[in-house]
Amino acid sequence: MGPATLQLFANSECNLACWFCNTRQRRKETPHPPVSAEMVNLVLEAFPSIRKVWIGGTGEPLLHPQLPELLEAIHARGVRLHITTNGTKVLERQDLPWSLVETITVSLLEANEERYKQATGTKHFDTVIKGIEFLVGAVESVELARVVTRDTVEDMKAFLELAHDLGAHGVSFRNISRCAGDDLKPFIENTALHTGVEGLVDRMREVKAQAPAGLKIQWPRISDFSQPRGRLCWVLESMLVVDGAGNMGCCCRGAGARPEFGNVSQGPSAWRSTALEAFRQRVRGPEHGRPVECQCCYVPYAEVAL
Fold first, then answer.
1. Which of 114, 195, 230, 247 is least surrounded, with the fewest CB atoms within 10 Å of its CB?
2. Measured distance CA(183)–CA(180) in Å, rounded
3. Which residue ranges in the chain fall short of pLDDT 50?
4. Contacts of 234 by beta carbon, 8 Å cutoff, 6+ apart
5. From residue 111, how far is each of 101, 129, 145, 171, 269 by CA, in Å?
6. What's the confidence (pLDDT) of residue 258?
7. What pLDDT shows up at residue 209?
8. Which 8-state DSSP code applies to residue 194?
9. Domain boundaries, the chain
10. β-sheet bridge partners, residue 107
C-alpha cells in the first residue's frame, strides 16, 4: 500500500524569522526550487493512494509564484487540500481559488500584537487578523495554530477566545520542536512540555475546562520522555514528503525530503528505496538506535491524557 498523505515542501522561502522555527536551518542547507504543477501531477499519478495533500513545511506557501496552478492541479485529482500559512500574505492573495481548499491552518502564534512582534520580529499582527477574517468566509475550515511552552500555558486561554471571536473552526496547539539548532536546545529543554514539569498537567486541564464551546481543539502533547511508547511512528508508512526538486521523504522531521532518499522521477518504487527502508528500520529499532530526529520528537513517547 502506498502513502495516504502528500506533504509538499512547496517552496523554501519565508518572510518571517520566528525564533522557535526548526526549518530555518533546513532552508539554508537544502534550498529547493518551487514545486511545479507538473511535479504535482507526476506524484499523484505515481501514487494513486494519496487522498490528502498538505502544502507547507519549509517555506511560506503564499509566496509560491504559481500557487493557483498548484491548487488547480491538486483539485483536479479529487484529493483533499490543506494549506499551512503564516497568514501575512492572505490579503494580497485574495484572488486565489480559495474554494478549492478544504482546510487552512494559520500560524498566528500569539493573541496580541506585542507578543506577536516578539515571536516573529514583525508587525504583521493586524494584517494576519484581517486575513483570517477573510478566510473564514472563503475556506471551508479555518484553524489557528500556536506553539505552547510550559511558560505560556495560561496564554492559551486568550488564544482560544480570540479564535472563537474570529469565527475560526479550530485551534491547534503545538509543542515546541525539540529538533531545533544547537543554539536553541538549552532553552527548549527548559520550556518543553513533559510530565517532569510540576503542576503542568493540572494547569493544562484547567485551560481545557474553560475552552469555548464549538471549537475543534488539538491539544499539545505532554510526553513522558522516560517511557517510550510501544506503538512507534505511524507516519513512516502513510506520509510522502516531496520538495520542488522531486526529492522524497516519509515524515516531516527525520525523513523530510532528501536526495539520498530517492526522487519521484524514479516512480512508485522509490517509496521503497533502500535508503527509506533503512530509515524506517532504524525508527522501528531499539530506542538508543533511532535517528536523532526521532529522539527529539514527542510522538515516540507515552503521553498523559488531558
1. 230
2. 8
3. none
4. none
5. 25, 10, 11, 12, 46
6. 87
7. 96
8. B
9. 5-303
10. 145
Tell me the residue length of the chain: 306
Instruction: Give, in order, the Cα–Cα distances in Å from 251 to each of 170, 261, 268, 277.
Output: 24, 12, 17, 13
Helix, strand, or coil (residue 136): helix
Residue 175 CB neighbours (<10 A): 19
Exposed / middle / buried, residue 141 (Cβ in 10 Å: 0-12, 13-18, 19+)? middle
pLDDT value of position 84: 96
First to last CA, the chain: 34
* Element of type H or E holding 171: strand 170-175
CA angle (205 as vertex; 149, 230 as ends), nearest 5: 75
In this structure, which topology does domain 5-303 adopt according to CATH? Answer: TIM Barrel (3.20.20)
Question: Which pLDDT score, from 0 to 100, does residue 230 have?
Answer: 58
Please give the Cα distance from 21 to 153 (Å, whole number).
Answer: 19
Q: CA Rg, the chain, in Å? A: 19
Q: How far apart, in Å, are the Cα atoms of 160 and each of 78, 83, 155?
A: 33, 21, 9
Dihedral angle computed from the Cα positions of residues 286, 200, 157 and 184, in that order, rounded to the nearest 10 degrees? -60
For residue 104, the model assigns a pLDDT of: 98
Nearest alpha-carbon partner for 163 in 182, 150, 147, 144: 144
What would the grid cell of residue 12 be? Answer: 523554501
Closest CA to 303 of 241, 239, 220, 234: 220
Using CA atoms, how far apart are residues 243 and 277, in angstroms rounded to an integer?
A: 19
| Beta-carbon contacts of residue 161 (< 8 Å; ≥ 6 apart) | 111, 212
Residue-level pLDDT at 20: 73
For residue 287, what pLDDT is reported? 63
Report angle CA 299, 154, 213 to the nearest 5 degrees.
80
* Cell of residue 175, nine digits: 509543542
Q: What is the pLDDT of residue 210?
A: 95
3-state secondary structure of 53: strand
